């Protein structure tokens, strides 16, 4: 299978491979405090073994069309900057969720916005999905700004939608359809 690599200027996304385990673990460790505020997959004690398990699932999930996870990389030196993916792919209704995070030392540089645009183009154009959803905890203002910069439309608040740090949180629902992405195509 030909690896998928998409890039826009200095930022790219590429399929994960097993050799990314240590690099991914280091990025997660650097960002763990922030990730735990907004992500359910990064509990206290997240380990290198957890990274390896995730990476082992990536290839299988990709082949089955279950989800498509990408490493976000700096195209100049291949530094692993974070991750972006399409999850909960629904082939009957042709939609999926977008998720993204960027390592703490590289936030506020437009990396998440670029990666989200690239994954949206992949989902809507290459996979032929009709809709992408971004569910964002209400207190994650930075991620909401990313969704808006990508061109996603705010659709509403989903009350008591996610449990983070043992507390219920509302989430904001954003969506992208092909027409929304047209002016932002990489």
Could you describe the 3D structure shown?
This protein has one domain: Gcn5-related N-acetyltransferase (GNAT) (Aminopeptidase, 3-Layer(aba) Sandwich). 35% of the residues lie in helices and 34% in strands. The chain has five helices and eight strands. A hairpin with a 2-residue loop joins β1 (5-8) and β2 (11-15). α1 (21-38) crosses α2 and α3 packs across α4. The protein is globular and about 40 Å long. 34% of the residues are buried. The model has no long low-confidence stretch (mean pLDDT 90).
Which labels suit this protein?
alpha+beta, eight-stranded mixed beta sheet, 34% strand, globular, 186 residues, Aminopeptidase, 35% helix
CATH superfamily: Gcn5-related N-acetyltransferase (GNAT)
How would you state the average pLDDT, rounded?
90
> How many E-type strands?
8
CATH architecture: 3-Layer(aba) Sandwich
Oligomeric grouping of the chains:
single chain
Overall morphology: globular
Helix-strand category: alpha+beta
End-to-end distance = 23 Å
Continuous helix count: 5
As a whole number of angstroms, the C-alpha radius of gyration is: 15 Å
Strand percentage: 25-35%
Task: Tell me the domain tally.
Answer: 1
Low-confidence stretches: none
What order do the strands of the largest sheet run in, or round the barrel if closed?
1-2-3-4-5-6-8-7
